[in-house]
Amino acid sequence: MPFFYLNVLGDMNDGSLCVITQFVKGIEMDAYRVGLGKRATDIWPDDARIYMSKDQKGVKLSSLLGTTRNMLIARVDLRRLIEEHCKGVDIEYLPFSLYDHRKRLYSKDYSIINPIGTFDCLDPRKTNAVWDKEKPGRISLLRMPVLDRAKVAKAPELFRIPEAPTDLIFGPKLVEAISSAKLTNLRGAKLKFGDEV
Fold this sequence. Notes:
4-stranded antiparallel beta sheet, mainly beta, 6-stranded mixed beta sheet, 14 strands, 3 helices
């Protein structure tokens, strides 16, 4: 199984699916932390709540809740697989209660999965990206990562890209486990290695 580039939006062609556009009530200004792999445990409320927004009508729940906030939102089934395949990896599991459009409790089965830090993985010569001219080594726009085979030989099963930390990569064992478990609403792109491009 290959490495996969995760699309946290999920299946945008299915309007029945719940899509999250909000962050945890009361700490909205700190949403960037879980989008960039920075710790949020110290500010996480005991009664963390996310409300469905009125501009998103879908209410169908899935293994991955699509989001516009650069977060990985996982139901218990996906979280268990990540925990199983990412033992020893520095990851925050941040549970919250999901409330519907009428502010009624809808589910307590979800957590935001926040891999802390990044893992050097790109083949910069082959990666399809717009590189920042003012800050060398930084990506302005990542179109599609291309991996360096030697760098990812010891990669964890879930990690962020240093040059684009909002982007998440699933490793081969985790991809295989997710595929076997037939989890729902997981979308992504198979990644190539530099020696394949």
